[in-house]
Amino acid sequence: MKITKAVIAAAGTGTRFLPAVKAYPKELIPILDKPNLQYLVEEMIGAGIEEIAIVHRHGDPLIKKYFTPDPKLEEFLKKTGKEHYLDSLRAIWKKVKKFRFIPQSNRLPYGNAAPVLAAKGFVNNEPFVYAYGDDLILEKNPGKFLSSLIATFQKYRPDAVATAAEFPWQDFKHYSSIKFKNDKIPNQIVDVIEKPATRKEAFTNFNMGMRFVVSPKAFSVLATQEISHGELWFTDTIRELAKTGIVIGQPIKDAEWMTTGDPLRWLKVNIKIAFEDKEMKKELKTFLKKIG
């Protein structure tokens, strides 16, 4: 089955970015010249996704406004010879067949599984891609790694394929930890724990998250899933799917995972991407050396 739908979670409060994001979503904070969220949309397009639902904070119109054409602005840019500034957005408008902007109901529980529930009508009982809105997969060809997740899902027809990213052991309290088994299916997940309290509780130094390809079975799990530590965790959804079926954890290859969920990591991503440009890299190295 061809997978054409993706759900992007962008409904968080962004507390670690307050007060900056009091009036707008953290997913619109720019990384160089494009919002964080645009990088995710471009990744989806690169993986062949045609329909994208962005689940956003209830009552917030700004994400929809950003991804909607603005004729007055385009006319102004045309008159001033600056049309090229919108080239990347125009490319998105041409390639995405359908955008859906879904406000996350205040009746839904807090947690990173809630956007999946909000998008149930959009998914319409089909396998879909699910992406956390503050995680980036940096690669030369955006969407290549996500395409490999989709290919694995199509090959084995599991209940889910999840990204598995290695992290330093000293950071185990900040991430989930995956337990693998290798049998007929490589990298099968048999258990996962969210933010283990001690290193002994952690199975491995592989975190699960960022990108998922998920079967509609996830909704059956979410229908009865309990709140854990005050949140509805998608990790728990995947854990339950792994108990009753097959879930694969695919390690990141030829790409780098970076999160933008707090100011320091956001700054690191900006520097990382800026260093891909020779001129920016030169100026930044001089500047960093000067202030260092």
Description:
- It is a single chain.
- This protein is an alpha/beta fold and 292 residues long.
- The strands form four sheets. A seven-stranded mixed beta sheet has the order 5-4-1-6-11-8-12. A two-stranded antiparallel sheet has the order 2-3.
- Helices cover 35% and strands 24% of the residues.
- It has eleven helices and 13 strands.
- It has helices spanning 36-46, 62-66, 71-79, 87-95, 114-118, 120-123, 144-156, 217-224, 234-244, 263-274, 278-291; strands spanning 5-10, 30-31, 34-35, 51-57, 98-104, 128-132, 135-138, 160-166, 176-181, 188-194, 206-214, 247-251, 256-259.
- The radius of gyration is 19 Å and the shape is globular.
- The protein has two domains: 5-261, Spore Coat Polysaccharide Biosynthesis Protein SpsA, Chain A, CATH 3.90.550.10; 263-292, no CATH class.
Structural class: alpha/beta
Quick one: CATH class of the largest domain? Alpha Beta
State the major sheet: 7 strands, mixed
Q: Termini, distance in Å?
A: 53 Å
Helix count from the secondary structure assignment: 11
Number of strands: 13
Low-confidence stretches: none
Number of domains: 2
Relative strand content: 15-25%
Instruction: Give me the CATH architecture of the largest domain, please.
Output: Alpha-Beta Complex
What is the CATH T-level topology of the largest domain? Spore Coat Polysaccharide Biosynthesis Protein SpsA, Chain A
Helix-strand string = EEEHEHHHEHHEEHEEEEHHEEHH
The whole-number mean of residue pLDDT values reads 94
By CATH, the superfamily of the largest domain comes out as: Spore Coat Polysaccharide Biosynthesis Protein SpsA, Chain A
Strand numbers in spatial order across the main sheet: 5-4-1-6-11-8-12
> What value does the Rg take, in angstroms?
19 Å
